Amino acid sequence: MERQDNKYKYSQLEVYKESLESIHIKTKTIIVNVLLFLFALLLIFFLTRDSIDPSDLWPSLFMIFVIIVVNLLFMSITDDAYNSLHVAMYVTIIGIHVITISLVFAFQTPSIFTSLFLGYAITSIYQDQKGMILSSVMLFFAGTTIVVLHPEFLALYQSSNTENLYIYVFLMVFVTLLTLSSFILIKRKAFFYNQIASIKEAEVRNITLMNQMFEVKMNQKNDYSHYYNDLEVFSEHLSEKIGVDSLFKSRIEALRMLKEKPMFEVAEKYPEFTAAEFEELQLLEVEVNNKMINLATKASKSGDIKVAKKDIFNESQFKSFNHVGDSQYTKIISFAVFYALLKVDKPYLKSIEESKLRDLIFNSEYFYRIDRDIVNIYLENSEVFDSIVNDHLKGGW
Amino acid sequence: MKTFLKSFFNIRSFINKIKNSEFLTFNEVLKVKVKVVNWFLVIFLALTITVVTKENVTLNLLTLLAPAAVMLLVSFLLLRLKISRVAMHTTIYTFLLLTGYYLTSTDYFFTYMLFFVGLTIIIFYQDFMTYLLYGGALTVIGVYYVMTEGDGLIGANSVSALSGSYISSLTYQVILIGFYMVFFIQFIVSDNIYARLNNEWVRMNKTLERYQEFTQAQIIELIEKSESKPVFNSNKFQQAVSEIAVFINEFFEDSGDEIAEVVEFYFFIHNKEVDKVIEDQELPVITRKYALELKKYMLNYRSEIISILFDFSTLLQEDKSYDENRYVYDINKLFKNRINKLLALAILYKYLKSEITQFDKWGQISKTLNHEEIKELFLSPEFRDFISFEQVNFYLDNQELFKKHL
Fold this sequence. Notes:
The complex is a heterodimer of chains A (397) and B (406).
Chain A: H1 13-47, H2 54-75, H3 81-107, H4 110-113, H5 115-123, H6 129-149, H7 164-218, H8 227-242, H9 249-260, H10 263-269, H11 275-284, H12 291-300, H13 309-312, H14 328-342, H15 354-362, H16 366-369, H17 372-380, H18 382-393
Helix pairs in contact in A: 1-2, 1-3, 1-7, 2-3, 3-5, 3-6, 5-6, 6-7, 8-9
Chain B: H1 2-8, H2 11-19, H3 26-50, H4 57-80, H5 84-103, H6 108-125, H7 128-149, H8 161-226, H9 235-249, H10 257-268, H11 274-279, H12 285-295, H13 304-315, H14 331-334, H15 338-354, E1 358-359, E2 365-367, H16 371-379, H17 389-397, H18 399-405
Antiparallel strand pairs in B: 1-2
Helix pairs in contact in B: 3-4, 3-5, 4-5, 5-6, 5-7, 6-7, 6-8, 7-8, 9-10
């Protein structure tokens, strides 16, 4: 049966990953456009040489101008930045290859043939999987066309000509190695986008879990209703000190109402606030919304968190049951303990029924956190695991 | 030998490794890359031997190709010994030796192409310093080669032999330098993004561990309060774990006695000071090794397994859908209205002062922050992620009111 990687993961991941990627792709778009501008300057320099026919260079210069304009246009779209920037990227990749191919056909010399590699290098800045495939395919076909159909482009003036087969082999090596290198790099980068997005959501949920455990321990719900009374008193004194009329009063009243009434009803009562201000007030509300409580909880735990350089590239930061260097026994025991713990009731998690647990392990990232042989033994013998636990732990531990 | 050859030619496992390269360590990825380059070099060396000119065959074979072959063998050996980094350098030297051979040939364009291939191999390793040094040196040699052998590189279609020579030589040099520079920029961009993402991830990981320490401490307090025993002290639980471990182990070895003993040891160290066990020189090395390995899976503190369990439980937690402010904790990014920012600051102060958020000196969660501690926090560099200096100044100007009324 095929694994469904996306079945058990935080639903918020994809959208946040897109926003993370959009920020980076925007920076890369700017870099690519600066490089294109420099490339244009280089062509203008060649334009000034007597031996160059200007009509061979004008189309490429015009094309660069078009690409830069297209990029600026797409970068200005903020509503759907992710897709706009991707469209701009594909247009740029195709455009760059069209420019280099047209240069090769215009000059028909071996020296300009290598501009195909330069074009490929510029497109590699994007480090995008689809972009990389597009660029590799275009380079491959452009190179093949020239080597096979126009070998005269590669002919030398004074010396013996290179065997075209060798050029072709090296073109293949070039495309394969760079594609493979980009593929590995992109995979790692995507993994980190995923990890960052995942840990951001894990943070929100761990704060919730921590606050829930506090409520369980105290045997009562957290109550923040008294905050508003204190804020009112604080507001009065602060307003008096700075010489203004009640600084927070109407806002605190609106916050109290927001707990029980929908926003439009509160808005009718307080017409002095704009829609944007009401959205902000909703974030400030502490009894129903948890934004300010999460913010304050995070702030309360933020002191003295230091990241040393050695931590940054330390792979042991990844928590798993499959650490390199651990003995087979440790891998087995850690998984056995993990499994048994998932089958007993805990304050934060009730025991999980076997079919659900098997599905969870098979279709989530936890599949990769367990040694492959051990997880396969579990997946093939989950009923045995279940019966062992039932024999010992049915009715509690 | 059979297993060695099987693992050596296992293409499917090799492709799988590349497909799942994000889950490999840096060393494992490097090993895969060196393997790819090694095989390319084998083919390249074989092709080179077939085209050696007859005039200097002995000299060429002895001075360049034989050392290259030896270095290639060394590289395979280093890979086998898991010294991937040295193997990487060896493959680069091997390629440089082969390029050295072609520098003497009259196939100028082919030799020029080798500079691109050399740079490609170095780029393939994705190591900044290696690219900077070897790549830079190769580019300089390439430019020098074009300067000295430029005439041999002029295309038949160049406009005229005289002006064509200058333009052709310039084009070759500019494109080679441009290629090197563009990938240099790509290295800086990707290293920068990677380091930033990694840094943020490690910082978040540490923050997450802190929340989990509190959650775990609350659970321990809860267990103490209910006067029940922790799960790791339950005989039933210990037996269940032991049987599961023995069952899994049956797939790897016949006897389950040894693993059952290790399971017993695992639960035994829960009631000992595990660090003392690890450091105890009188204990057998194997015992200390197991204690060290199993420490991260112990259940009596916020260990790795506890973090994994908490994270696992959050997978099943119901939560709100994503909105653009979901992961924003900076008051200045959340609010545009200045009064709302001040109100948020007041709420933050109120929370820190009135809620139990800290461990006391006995390790119990029972402490709130006092005014001075909050002031210290507000002034700390870590707090710039939440409030700006402008808000800190407002707080300092009105701190008596904060202290008295919130």
